[in-house]
Amino acid sequence: MTQQSPEPLTDPALDPARAPSLAGVERAAAKVAALLPPTPLLPLDIDGVTVWCKAECLQPVGAFKIRGAWHRLSDLTAEQAAAGVVGVSSGNHAQGVAWAAKRLGIRATIVMPGNAPAMKLAATRALGAEVVLYDRVTESRDAVAAKLLAERGGTLVHAYGDPWIIEGQGTAGLEAEGQLRARGFAGFDKVVACCGGGGLTAGLALALPDAEIVAVEPEGWDDVTRSLAAGEIMSVEDMAHPTECDALQTPETWPINFAVLQARGVRGAVVTREEVRHAMRVAFEKLHLVVEPGGAAALAALLAGKVAPGAATLVTLSGGNVDPQKYAEILAGY
Amino acid sequence: MTQQSPEPLTDPALDPARAPSLAGVERAAAKVAALLPPTPLLPLDIDGVTVWCKAECLQPVGAFKIRGAWHRLSDLTAEQAAAGVVGVSSGNHAQGVAWAAKRLGIRATIVMPGNAPAMKLAATRALGAEVVLYDRVTESRDAVAAKLLAERGGTLVHAYGDPWIIEGQGTAGLEAEGQLRARGFAGFDKVVACCGGGGLTAGLALALPDAEIVAVEPEGWDDVTRSLAAGEIMSVEDMAHPTECDALQTPETWPINFAVLQARGVRGAVVTREEVRHAMRVAFEKLHLVVEPGGAAALAALLAGKVAPGAATLVTLSGGNVDPQKYAEILAGY
Question: What would the CATH number be for the domain defined by B66-157?
Answer without folding.
Answer: 3.40.50.1100
